[in-house]
Write a structure and sequence with these properties.
The chain is α/β, with parallel strands linked by helices and 783 residues long. Helices cover 52% and strands 10% of the residues. Bound molecules: 2-acetamido-2-deoxy-beta-D-glucopyranose (NAG) (4 copies). One 2-acetamido-2-deoxy-beta-D-glucopyranose binds at residues 90, 562, 565, 577, 580-581, 584. Residues 83-105 have a biased composition (Polar residues).
Length: 783
């Protein structure tokens, strides 16, 4: 403030005083550096300049007026409040400095608000179905990308859509938003027809079967949909056909003849997945009719070399057939206008912005919306009676029809852009369909549709440095996760910790064990458990009297700061970053306990016992806050914490509905319940489950002892047949390498190192195969 006063005074008298050598920038810098340079002999290189500017009469006058002739002394109190800024930059949404360097007033304020506690508890409104937009509320419509029905979703699918959207939905509800979270299986298309043929079922039977599998998996992962529907409904047909007619009447559809592959022996056109051949771009021999799995490029089926019907392996012939196209170029101007508005006012992840831009830059072309298939929404037009809508025209309409299946008042959500904010969650490969193709359908249909305001796209989650692949049996799939015996909360935690936000990430078993043990057990679990245990053990289960000193107040302010970050981050859907704030809160809590040692002070005199009480009381309140901020991430754990602490139902929303008020929700005298550790070791029953689950592998004694030593992740890893295969390959590779080295007469120490590596691999392999690894291990040690 003082500096700006100087600048103001000097600049108002500038014009005639200034010689060409001194500019406004000089004055600004001079004033800013005044405290540093005015009575120091350092920074000699700039002293000349500093004095030259300071010699100006205007500068001297201004400095005198502001500093009252006391020189830099006059700035003392001001400077003490703002210690030298830290050099390292924080990557956080605000530039707020750490709490411990904040002015005392902020710490006092945090402590004051905290002490006031729960005053008027916000009404916790029960969710009443159907959830509909309400006047004066923030109405959030939250559909998660619809998973394709014919596959069991893998962990990457989960984190890309339903799990990420679930965290945001839970968070939004705690914030008091009026929010509708829907999802469902996307059931039409060639993939379903193929699967039906493979399994000898009808497409409808396939959909029924897999819809139930999806629903089970999401339920196990505690995905709290308001409604989980499907696309094979009468609402889908009605709405898709309505949009089609509206586009048709308004002249946004084109007709064109398309060359297509047709299998004469099967009597069918071979779209997309019904045909395989060599990729025209990269020559990958098993490219599909719509896309190459190897190079990822889109393919027009007639471009495939050596095409083969997937069913009968005959060579198809080229035939032509009439199709309908959505005229994207005709909608481009309107699309651009809408995109400008949506991307500038909403939260679009960076990848979503880039992908959309590059699609438009490459030029929009008319896009085919019909297909020669049976399993789909029928095209209602006379001339296209044999055809259905192409899934990418059809599938996003599923959001509307699923909402319509949930409530007949669905238009209150989907034709209400004034009142409703729409968030779309997806993996990045789905972006163009949500940012360009589907919005064009809706814009062209001109029926006041709600268009996406916030487009949240993740990068990819890989599996141990490779890709998830059902056909190759690589990766963990939703149905397997629940059979591992690892609680769903722990899965959620680890997947969200890894959420590919901004860049790809990879699932790894050993990292999961590490994060599990370091962050969940040692950091979070340990803090919450100790806080509760101290109340139980030292204070008979009653929260003790708290008399805050500076240490306590500083902790409260730190926690409040992290809570604010958490809210700012989650408001921007930075789910992974916000999780780090939670872990920081419990880290602060652990440090605070470690420093204040209530377990020692409780044995001391009155003063010490008083201190132990305060520290315990503050800590258990931090634990209560943790249960609130954990709710979106680990709902069961969050619930258990609140149960153990007998925390009031309202404490969660109370702390999250404003911009982050950490308050004392467990006042002195509050009685907590029975406390027990949140994260437990694997028990014997769970081992039995594991043994059965991985029935092919004998769980040997060695495994049991490892499990009992508390390293379940090791066990999991070993029990996977995939792992054994991988290790066999590694052992062979290492053996070859070693033979090569010996043939080259390499240095003995080099060879010894490689031998040691080989022995380690062999040991892991025998474990993975359920054998006793000891002999190998001993040989390794003798060396
Ligand atoms: C929702 O769709 C299912 C499946 O088609 C149907 O059985 C059910 O009656 C529909 N519910 C409503 C309210 O339309
Ligand atoms: C669209 O719907 C809103 C109500 O959400 C209404 O206020 C508005 O007038 C409608 N606009 C058009 C063009 O129909
Ligand atoms: C959490 O704490 C670490 C180290 O204490 C810090 O580097 C990081 O910025 C903090 N993260 C958040 C999101 O507050
Ligand atoms: C994580 O640790 C908990 C104990 O806190 C244990 O029950 C769970 O099985 C562990 N999971 C993994 C993958 O290590």
């Amino acid at each position: 403030n003082k500096s700006s006063e100087v600048i103001f005074i000097v600049s108002s008298g500038l014009t005639d005083v200034f010689q060409e050598a001194v500019s406004v920038a000089d004055v600004v810098l001079w004033a800013a550096l005044y405290p540093l340079l005015s009575d120091s002999s350092e920074l000699r290189s700039v002293r000349g300049w500093f004095e030259r500017v300071g010699d100006l009469a205007a500068c001297q006058a201004a400095a005198n007026r502001v500093l009252h002739g006391k020189g830099v002394e006059a700035l003392k109190t001001f400077l003490q409040k703002h210690p030298a800024t830290q050099t390292q930059r924080r990557d956080s949404p605000t530039n707020a400095t750490e709490v411990h360097s904040n002015p005392t007033s902020e710490i006092e304020e945090a402590a004051q608000i905290w002490s006031e506690g729960l005053k008027s508890s916000p009404a916790v409104t029960e969710r009443k179905h159907p959830v509909l937009p309400q006047e004066g509320k923030r109405n959030v419509l939250l559909p998660s990308a619809l998973p394709y029905v014919n596959n069991v979703p893998h962990l990457g699918n989960l984190i890309g859509c339903v799990l990420s959207a679930d965290v945001f939905a839970r968070y939004g509800r705690l914030r008091g938003w009026n929010l509708l979270y829907i999802c469902g299986t996307d059931e039409y298309g060639t993939a379903t027809e193929n699967k039906a043929r493979e399994e000898g079922l009808t497409p409808q039977e396939i959909c029924d079967k897999y819809h139930a599998i999806h629903a089970d998996i999401y339920q196990w992962f505690q995905i709290d949909f308001d409604f989980f529907g499907r696309t094979t409904t009468k609402q889908q047909t009605e709405i898709a056909q309505d949009i089609f007619w509206r586009l048709h009447e308004r002249g946004f559809l084109l007709e064109d003849t398309v060359e297509q592959l047709r299998c004469e022996s099967c009597q069918r056109f071979l779209a997309d997945r019904f045909v395989e051949g060599e990729c025209p771009h990269c020559r990958y021999p098993e490219a599909r009719g719509d896309q190459c799995d190897k190079c990822g490029r889109l393919i027009n089926a007639v471009e495939l070399r050596n095409p083969q019907c997937k069913v009968c392996k005959e060579t198809p012939v080229i035939c032509s057939s009439k199709h309908l196209f959505l005229n994207l170029p005709k909608l481009e101007d309107e699309l651009e206008q809408w995109l400008d508005k949506s991307t500038s006012s909403g939260d679009w992840t960076l990848n979503a912005r880039h992908i959309t831009r590059s699609w438009i830059r490459d030029g929009l072309k008319p896009r085919c919306i019909t297909r020669d298939l049976q399993w789909g929404t029928p095209v209602p037009h006379e001339d296209y009676k044999e055809k259905v809508f192409y899934v990418w025209f059809d599938a996003p309409i599923g959001y509307l029809s699923i909402t319509a299946n949930y409530t007949d008042q669905w238009e209150k959500w989907w034709k209400n852009p004034q009142q409703v904010e729409l968030y779309n969650f997806m993996a990045k490969d789905n972006v163009p369909f949500h940012s360009v193709v589907f919005p064009c359908s809706l814009l062209g249909a001109q029926d006041n549709y709600t268009l996406v305001n916030h487009l949240i796209a993740t990068e990819y989650l890989n599996y141990e440095d490779t890709k998830f692949s059902k056909s190759r049996g690589v990766g963990v799939f939703g149905d397997m996760a629940k059979d591992t015996g690892i609680p769903s909360d722990v899965w959620r935690f680890y997947l969200l910790y890894l959420r590919p936000e901004g860049q790809d990430s990879a699932f790894s078993w050993s990292d999961m064990a590490l994060k599990n043990n370091s962050e969940l057990l040692n950091n979070l679990g340990n803090f919450i458990n100790r806080a509760g245990m101290f109340v139980s053990k030292f204070f008979d289960g009653c929260v003790p009297e708290m008399l805050l000193n500076e240490d306590d107040k500083r902790l409260i302010a730190q926690v409040r700061w992290e809570l604010k970050q958490y809210i700012q981050l989650l408001d921007k859907v930075r789910i992974r970053d916000a999780l780090k704030c939670i872990l920081n809160i419990s880290r602060h809590g652990n440090q605070y306990m470690q420093l204040n040692e209530p377990w020692k002070k409780i044995k001391g005199g009155d003063g010490d016992r008083q201190r132990a009480g305060t520290v315990t009381g503050v800590s258990v309140n931090v634990a209560c806050l943790l249960s609130a901020v954990l709710e979106p991430y680990m709902p069961s754990v969050s619930h258990t914490i609140r149960q153990q602490l007998q925390a009031p139902h309202t404490c969660v929303s109370a702390m999250l509905q404003n911009t982050g008020t950490f308050i004392c929700t467990l006042p002195a005298g509050h009685r907590i319940g029975a406390v027990s550790p949140l994260f437990q070791k694997l028990e014997n029953e769970q081992i039995e489950v594991l043994r059965k689950r991985f029935g092919g592998q004998q769980v040997c004694k060695r495994h049991l002892s490892i499990i009992n030593q508390g390293s379940p992740a090791e066990t999991m890893k070993m029990c996977f047949p995939e792992r054994a295969k991988q290790l066999t390959a590694l052992v062979a590779e290492q053996g070859n390498k070693l033979r090569g080295l010996k043939a080259q007469k390499a240095d003995k120490s080099v060879i010894d190192d490689e031998v040691e590596k080989l022995l380690q691999l062999k040991k892991q392999l025998s474990l993975a195969e359920g054998k006793n690894p000891e002999p190998a291990a001993q040989k390794g040690k003798k060396k």
